[in-house]
């Protein structure tokens, strides 16, 4: 295997990255990034210029093909390896990112007659406009005592397949009827590579409510909306395990990528879940936090348990032979970026400067507590109508104070998740961090101090892409299973950050205040955030319905 290679492709929110990896030891020999031409469409639909409603987030699936056409050949060139030595390709995707398609995989947005219809396009993971539909899904599941609802912490997210699918049906039934397939982008891109439709057990379990061999019943779906009864027929493709071989690279995809036709194409996967293999964190108790614009938390357990507010527990959802648990925070890096880009004054508008100033502060010196809900709450409250909050602002408050409070707020959110797991009998002994935010040393130390756990750092800057490459090596037959491949190709630096006892005690007091605010504003004592969201949305709709008025200047 010393001269054999695999390619991992990581599809993020704004770009896709290709990574060429040596099979024998996981050495990363070449990489390239391709930015999506259309990025995230959250203001207007690119095809028509028409404005989008609040909380929408769409993408163009051809941007995903462009990653194959551009990033993969560029990574091969950077690696300087002979393409003939590449034996497999694997991919991962943000999730739940889902699109409607024809039975042959053609996205509906690529049909000329549907390009102006927003519901025909890819709904990105952070499309949160289906929250009312998620609320109905959850209420009915509890009313009927559906057996699967506990596997998702008691709530199905607005980000997932069913809420987005129900929104599609009720807001554009014609597009819903045209959609013969409702498919995760994680599976759709594999279809593009090997010409065969497959579904992976990870997204089917976490985002598609596939539990104990079945989807929710037709009776339940019909009770939501009679037209929704047959929804799962749009989901029900061949279901394959992680690390399995979905098929072989087609001639067309070989021409896009510059890779040999016929090499192994691994089953699709999710960016967070695939990273556990890259971080050598498949053993129970090692929670992987993939920290970027948002954070996804994944950990393996030995038994199934119901954890309040988690994203789900799935048999084999991270790796075969274990129960994979998922939780997450909808905004992390995005929150820090918002402050730097839109709120920090000149001279303070950089992460480096703000981190330097914030690091000089003792714990609690700023007198602030923030709730990390700038993009809603994924876990534990599963409510994307919630919003951010900062308590304690005074005329003495300075930019670095707010910045540090925002960093700390996301660490408190992660501690809430860890404690929920532990309370349900899923222990977390170590925090393993991957993603772009690992470079912020202040943030990493805050997480160790707030959670009271050692913090390890993945030994790769491209964790998801490396994880996808590891799965490609298994699909190509180079290793017997993902565990074996992880040990050979993954890497991690253990215990890089250790909790400081004095700071940890100080954070315990602040965390107690965070918990009080979390429950007051998030568990129904005060619904001001959702009321403000409703007022905002009504104002937007009212403004959109009124004719444009041009204000002139009197002579």
From TrEMBL:
Residues 288-476 form the Carbohydrate kinase FGGY C-terminal domain. GO terms for molecular function: ATP binding; D-ribulokinase activity; ribulokinase activity. InterPro entries: ATPase_NBD, Carb_kinase_FGGY, Carb_kinase_FGGY_CS, FGGY_C, Ribulokinase. Pathway: Carbohydrate degradation; L-arabinose degradation via L-ribulose; D-xylulose 5-phosphate from L-arabinose (bacterial route): step 2/3. It catalyses: L-ribulose + ATP = L-ribulose 5-phosphate + ADP + H(+). Keywords: Arabinose catabolism, ATP-binding, Carbohydrate metabolism, Kinase, Nucleotide-binding, Transferase. Its EC number is 2.7.1.16. GO terms for cellular component: cytoplasm. Coiled coil: none annotated. One of its GO terms (biological process) is L-arabinose catabolic process to D-xylulose 5-phosphate. Belongs to the ribulokinase family. This is Ribulokinase. It comes from Catellatospora coxensis. The lineage of its organism: Bacteria, Bacillati, Actinomycetota, Actinomycetes, Micromonosporales. The gene is araB.
């Amino acid at each position: 295997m010393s001269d054999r290679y695999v390619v991992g492709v990581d599809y993020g929110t704004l770009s896709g990255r290709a990574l060429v990896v040596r099979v024998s030891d996981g050495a990363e020999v070449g990489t390239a990034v391709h930015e999506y031409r259309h990025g995230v469409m959250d203001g207007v639909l690119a095809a028509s210029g028409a404005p989008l409603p609040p909380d929408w987030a769409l993408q163009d699936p051809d941007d995903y093909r462009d990653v194959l056409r551009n990033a993969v050949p560029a990574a091969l060139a950077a690696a300087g390896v002979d393409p003939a030595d590449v034996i497999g390709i694997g991919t991962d995707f943000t999730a739940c990112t889902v699109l409607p398609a024809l039975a042959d995989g053609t996205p509906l947005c690529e049909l000329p007659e549907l390009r102006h219809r927003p519901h025909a396009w890819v709904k990105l993971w952070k499309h949160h406009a289906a929250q009312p539909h998620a609320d109905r899904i959850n209420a009915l599941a509890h009313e009927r005592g559906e057996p699967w609802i506990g596997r998702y912490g008691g709530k199905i997210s607005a980000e997932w397949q069913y809420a987005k699918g129900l929104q599609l049906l009720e807001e554009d039934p014609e597009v819903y009827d045209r959609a013969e397939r409702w498919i995760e982008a994680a599976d759709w891109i594999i279809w593009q590579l090997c010409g065969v439709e497959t579904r992976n057990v990870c997204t089917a379990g976490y985002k598609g409510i596939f539990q104990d061999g079945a989807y929710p019943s037709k009776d339940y779906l019909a009770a939501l909306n009679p037209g929704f009864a047959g929804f799962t027929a749009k989901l029900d493709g061949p279901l394959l395990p992680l690390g399995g071989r979905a098929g072989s690279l087609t001639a067309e995809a070989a021409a896009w990528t510059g890779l040999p036709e016929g090499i192994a194409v691994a089953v699709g996967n999710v960016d967070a879940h695939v990273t556990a293999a890259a971080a050598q964190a498949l053993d129970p108790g090692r929670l992987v936090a993939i920290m970027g614009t948002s954070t996804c938390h994944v950990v393996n357990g030995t038994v199934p348990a119901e954890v309040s507010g988690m994203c789900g527990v799935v048999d084999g959802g991270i790796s075969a032979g274990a129960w994979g648990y998922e939780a997450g925070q909808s905004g992390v890096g995005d929150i820090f970026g918002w402050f730097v880009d839109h709120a920090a004054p000149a001279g303070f508008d950089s992460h480096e400067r703000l981190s330097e100033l914030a690091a000089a502060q003792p714990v609690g010196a700023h007198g602030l507590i923030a709730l990390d809900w700038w993009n809603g709450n994924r876990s534990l409250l599963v409510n994307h109508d919630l919003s951010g909050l900062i308590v304690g602002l005074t005329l003495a408050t300075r930019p670095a104070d707010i910045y540090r409070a925002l960093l700390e707020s996301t660490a408190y959110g992660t501690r809430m998740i860890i404690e929920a797991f532990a309370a349900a009998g899923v222990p977390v002994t170590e925090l393993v961090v991957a993603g772009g935010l690992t470079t912020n040393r202040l943030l990493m130390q805050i997480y160790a101090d707030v959670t009271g756990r050692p913090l390890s750092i993945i030994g790769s800057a491209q964790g998801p892409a490396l994880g996808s490459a590891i799965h490609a090596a298994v699909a190509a037959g180079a290793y017997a299973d993902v565990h074996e491949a992880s040990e050979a190709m993954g890497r991690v630096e253990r215990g890089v950050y250790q909790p400081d006892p004095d700071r940890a005690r100080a954070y315990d007091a602040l965390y107690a205040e965070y918990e009080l605010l979390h429950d007051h504003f998030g568990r129904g004592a005060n619904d001001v955030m959702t009321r403000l969201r409703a007022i905002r949305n009504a104002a937007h709709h009212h403004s959109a319905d009124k004719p444009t008025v041009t204000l002139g200047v009197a002579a």
